[in-house]
Amino acid sequence: MEAKDKFVENDTTSGESLANWGIIGQISIVKQLSLALESDRLSHAYLFSGPRHVGKNTLARTLAASVNCQGNHVPCRKCNSCQRIMATLHSDFQLLQVNETAGQRGIGIQSILDFQHRAYLKPFEGKYHVLVIDEAEFLTEEASNALLKLLEEPPPNVLIILLVTKTSFLLSTVVSRCHVLEFQLVSPAEITGFLSQEYGLPISEATILANLSQGCIGWAIKAATDDNLLESKKRRLGNVASISGATLEQKFKFAANLADLMRTNRTEVREELELWSAWWREVLLIQLGVPEITFNLTQIAGCEAPNSQFATTDLIQILNAIKETEELLEANVNPVLALEELMLKIPVTSSA
């Protein structure tokens, strides 16, 4: 159960040749891709799987820039092509993602067909057509089937990169036609060092952000320049901590609010449940007597660390229930019912 087993530590043997990739952690993946580029053995399709905010999007853009780079050291990140791809301005680079704030619920078939049409044409300003699909789990069934046909018979000079949190969210036939690369969480120590060096944060502040990021360095980088993110996460942690002492009516109201949010921002609900899982995991570790491998979320949230308030079996049950709820929501089960059932399984403090 040791937390550090989940994290990627920095590889100091990587050398300067990998520095231009601009990725913190994930060094083994960067090495694989760099070697594939050097030996001209890139796959036509990659599937980047792993938690949000660990560098999947950044690495996808960097790989797209690499295959179209005009510089001597690939990726140079300085040539016109690299800069235009990183800014999503390159005519041969396309990024598909769901804009939930605009009312989109999925990535439809027309987006795939449009790229397919372009893919059979000669690249306009680069060497490769590149398609990146962020949160590819939001592909509709029709879009997934259209993508599958493209993966089965890829045109030359086409690179497709799918980004997902779990490979199980995609059709198994789609997964089987991609080179799967598993991204890991970045170690808190590495995130702390990066924030201190690159953003000039005191070690104490960098450590707080690293712990709150739970290994998701993208969140930590954003929070380093946006105090609202830090305060928002502290507030949400406080809500998680207080819910075990809430009345049933208050719990159901909380479930209703999350269900409403599910209709407009599924990603935020996912992140909320991930935060719940992190919180209850920490409570379990504290009660098992191993607080040294936690993220210190209770301290950061300004909450008193619980001492033997919960039965261990109850804590294991709520962790399993959160995972089950995440799966139910991904399967489009009624969010109100799924979240209300989760509320009923929340352990109750002895003072409640």
Helix-strand string: EHEHHEHEHEHEEHHHHHHHHH
Task: Summarize the biggest pleated sheet.
Answer: 5 strands, parallel
> Count of DSSP helices?
15
Mean pLDDT: 87
Give the low-pLDDT segments. 1-6, 8-16
Oligomeric grouping of the chains: single chain
Care to count the β-strands? Answer: 7
Distance N terminus to C terminus? Answer: 30 Å
Main CATH class of the largest domain: Alpha Beta
Q: What overall form do the CA principal axes indicate? A: globular
**What fold name stands as the CATH topology of the largest domain?**
Rossmann fold
Order of strands in the sheet with most strands: 3-4-5-2-6
Helical residue percent? 40-55%
Which features does this protein show?
single chain; 352 residues; alpha/beta; Rossmann fold; 2 domains; five-stranded parallel beta sheet; two-stranded parallel ribbon; globular; disordered N terminus
